[in-house]
Structures are given as structure tokens and as C-alpha cells.
Amino acid sequence: MPQGEKNYDPQFTQHVIDTCGPNTSPRMKTIFAAAMKHLHNFAREIDLTPEEWLAGVQFFNETGKIWAESEGKRNEMHRLSDIVGLESLVTEIANYVQTDNPDYSPTSAAILGPFWSPNAPWRTLGDSIIQDPHEGTVTYMHGIIRDLKTQKPIPNVTFDMWQASSNGKYDFQDPDSQSDNNLRGKYKTDENGEYKLYCLRPTAYSLPQDGPSWQLLQALDRHPMRPAHIHLMVTHDDYKPVITQIYPKDDPWLATDTVFAVKDDLVVDFVPIKDTPAGMSEHKGPGGRATRELQLDITLAPKGMAAHSGPKL
């Protein structure tokens, strides 16, 4: 044994793994074995003390307590997995697609985050998702959704989007100022693969500055800011879904997004707009007419191109 190396029981971790019963599924055993090897090696590598272990136990207890006390509205464990980059890594693994032509690739995926809702209303093409007063900038957003292989437009795609208001809060976080489903909506692309709507130019916001996630950010001397973004979930029965976010190119937090979700092709430009776009009615909801425009085309990969599909537990 090299000088200074501690002679911890070399068989202990394998013994823990070997206690799995015969009804453990192969995938579950693979996950458990890998997790235990990394976790036990981590404890050995840093000589984890009993006091540090108990602090970790309390940390995760507090994480669960927030979920319970908020009646499921604040998913603190989800947020923790985001600020350590785990959800972004899992998203990359799950959405990897091998393409023959490096010039063509599907729109990059980004994390779902904790604020998606299955109850977003269906809206008509050209309608606004803005229901309530705000201090933001009304934006005309439009684009075409195309097939990765053929580059042809795809009709009847579901384009689901949601965003925070100009105060940095989503509808259910802000019941005093926002109605249900404010800044949420689902659309279907037309026969030309096109979607079009009114939304807000997004606003950067801070993650909550309390609870375990904030404690961890403080311990790591990191800021809690997310760059301004709009969430998208783009789906069609014949294509691999794209769950992603888009970001204004001038946002100051792009390089240090606290959840590591920014990718180059998701950084976009909200340009000034002078006139009401052809085929659109002028925006007459909260905030008045649109003063910015965003053209965002999306590329979907046919389901047969998906190169990774996780095994069942």
C-alpha cells in the first residue's frame, strides 16, 4: 500500500451492491451499482466526516420539506439538479442524434425546467399568449418547422410555449398579478409548417434566494441568475420532440447561466418591427402593439434517427 493511502475495506462497496435481490431489474442494478461505486469513492476520496455526512442528510431533508410545504408548487430537488448541471447533461444524452451531414442538425434541446404545465390552452395561429398587464416588450414571433432530412415544412406540429412575465415570475408563482395560463399557449403549424403568435421579449430572473439551492449557490460563490428565455416544446407523432429554450443575444447572463442550459443555436435576435406583419391583426392586448420581431425556425429529426433510447428500469 503506498505511503499515506488509507486501508479502507476494499470489499465493502461490492458487498453493498451484491445485496440486491434476484428480482432487481438489470437496468436498476446497473444504476445502483454505478451510483454506489461513485458515491463510496467520493466519500473515501475526501475522507467525508460524520459531521459533513449529517449536514448532507439535513440538506436533503430540507429539500423535501420545501416540496411538501409548497404543496408541490416548488420542486427544490429539480432545481438542485439544474444548478449542478445534471438536467442539462441528461437532456444532452437523451436527445443525441447522429446525422450524416454535419451541416444539418436538429434544433438543440435544453432543460424542461419545473414550470411546464399540461394545461396550457390551445390558441389560434396569430393569437397572443399575453393575458395580463406587464412592463415588457410585445413581440411578434414566427417561423417554420422543418424536417431534418428533407428540409421540407412539417404541418400539424404542436408548438407549446411558456415564459415568465416581465417581473420574472410564472403565472402560478404570481396569482396576484397573473391569471391562469398567462404567457402560455399551444399552437398547430399550418399547411406550410408555419407558426405565428404574439408574446413578450423575455426577462432575466433570479432563482429563489432561499432554501437549499440558494445555500449551495452561496457556498460555491455563484450567482442565481437565469438569462432571459422562452420555453418551447415542439412535438409531432413522426418526429423526435424538441424541448428547448431560446435566449436574447444581448443577455448578460448567457455565459454563466446558473443551470447551464444555453447553447449557441438557441441564442436569437429580437429585432425592431415597424408595421403589423402581413396576415396578422395588430396586437390589441396588454402592452399594445408589437415593437419587436423574432423569426425562429425549428428543425425536427424523424424518430428513426434517434440514436439513444434509455433502457427500462
UniProtKB/TrEMBL annotation:
**Which residue range or ranges hold the Intradiol ring-cleavage dioxygenases domain?**
112-288
Necessary cofactors: Fe(3+)
The protein's matches in SUPFAM superfamilies, at most eight in alphabetical order, are given as: Aromatic compound dioxygenase (SSF49482)
Q: What is this protein called?
A: Catechol 1,2-dioxygenase
Residues in a coiled coil are none
User: Zinc as a keyword?
Assistant: no
GO biological process assignments: catechol-containing compound metabolic process
Where in the sequence is the signal peptide annotated? none
A Pfam family (short name) is Dioxygenase_C
Q: Per UniProt, which keywords does this protein have? A: Dioxygenase, Iron, Metal-binding, Oxidoreductase
Q: Name one GO molecular function term.
A: ferric iron binding
Concerning its family, UniProt says: Belongs to the intradiol ring-cleavage dioxygenase family.
- Source domain of life is Eukaryota
Q: Which Gene3D superfamilies does the UniProt record give?
A: Aromatic compound dioxygenase (2.60.130.10)
- Which residues belong to any copy of the Catechol dioxygenase N-terminal domain? 26-98
Q: Which InterPro entries match?
A: Catechol_dOase_N (IPR007535), Intradiol_dOase_C (IPR000627), Intradiol_dOase_core (IPR015889), Intradiol_RC_Dioxygenase (IPR050770)
